[in-house]
Amino acid sequence: MTESVHAHNVLNMLLEDGADFSLDSLRQAVVALYGEDVRFHTCSLQDLTFDALLTFLLDRRKVIQDGDKIMANRDRMCSH
User: Fold this and answer.
1) What is the C-alpha radius of gyration for the chain, rounded to an integer number of angstroms?
2) Pairing of strands 4-6, 39-41
3) Of 76, 41, 36, 43, whose CA–CA distance to 58 is shortest?
4) Domains in the chain, CATH or no CATH each
5) Quick check: 18 and 71 in contact, CB under 8 A?
6) What is the DSSP letter of 61?
7) For position 76, what pLDDT does the model report?
8) What angle do CA 31, 37, 68 make, to 5 degrees?
9) What confidence score (pLDDT) does residue 74 get?
10) CA angle, corner 45, sides to 41 and 49, nearest 5?
């Protein structure tokens, strides 16, 4: 069975002290931590690939892309 990880785990990675991620380095960190076949879920969606999760987070402005950098948007994150 493929592991399902909550999207908050990825957002928390972006919020860690000293976090400085590009899209590629975030993808590499996620794969290193959870494996190639990881799937993600949110409060409303399930079985998301990393790319689908990133699209979801960008569309809802929970993460912001600035050039090559990607950052969590604390103002748009839920707190549960």
Assistant:
1) 12
2) parallel
3) 76
4) 4-74 (1.10.10)
5) no
6) T
7) 79
8) 40
9) 81
10) 55
